[in-house]
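can u do me a favor
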């Protein structure tokens, strides 16, 4: 028998290289999957194969590549675990097991808030027109300078004085404190 034509020698070498890489990938995934989740093992195997191709392209025998690839995957698994530890992935609680508050106030707090609102509305209705208008403008988010223009005050200090007096009068109407006396 004579030598193989040059085209089939390259084809045979290419097939054997592909077979070696496939066997190597299977072993890497099997090794990593025995210690990690399957999808993480697949990712690590892909990274190892890329590294072997880039840095160790001169090695072609399975006997040379297998120990090297297993050592690389060990290092990659340690790095993966350190990264997961840093991110707190081991201490995460599944969303299904997490109890979330409904956001509504408890009945006692809701009742206290309702009473406070009723007291505040009653007290504001007893204040003068200027105080009610001043409170409304402040609730709209107006600045003191804008309030000065709207109410026609001579200076901004006048608005400050009105605000202080209105809040003081409101506090007196509320019984001297925001919270109800118990």
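np, heres the sequence
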């Amino acid at each position: 028998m004579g030598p193989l034509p040059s085209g089939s020698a390259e084809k045979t070498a290419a097939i054997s290289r592909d077979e070696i890489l496939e066997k190597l990938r299977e072993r890497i995934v099997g090794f990593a999957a025995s210690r990690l989740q399957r999808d993480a093992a697949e990712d690590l195997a892909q990274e190892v194969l890329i590294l072997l191709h880039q840095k160790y392209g001169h090695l072609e025998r399975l006997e040379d590549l297998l120990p090297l690839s297993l050592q690389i995957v060990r290092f990659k698994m340690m790095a993966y675990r350190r990264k997961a530890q840093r991110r707190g992935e081991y201490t995460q609680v599944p969303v299904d097991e997490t109890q979330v508050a409904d956001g509504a106030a408890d009945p006692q707090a809701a009742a206290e808030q309702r009473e406070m609102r009723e007291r505040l509305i009653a007290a504001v209705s007893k204040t003068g027109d200027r105080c009610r208008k001043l409170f409304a403008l402040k609730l709209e988010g107006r600045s003191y300078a804008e309030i000065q223009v709207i109410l026609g005050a001579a200076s901004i200090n006048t608005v400050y004085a009105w605000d202080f007096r209105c809040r003081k009068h409101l506090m007196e109407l509320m019984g001297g404190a925001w919270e109800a006396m118990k």
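The chain has seven helices and no strands. hope that helps!!
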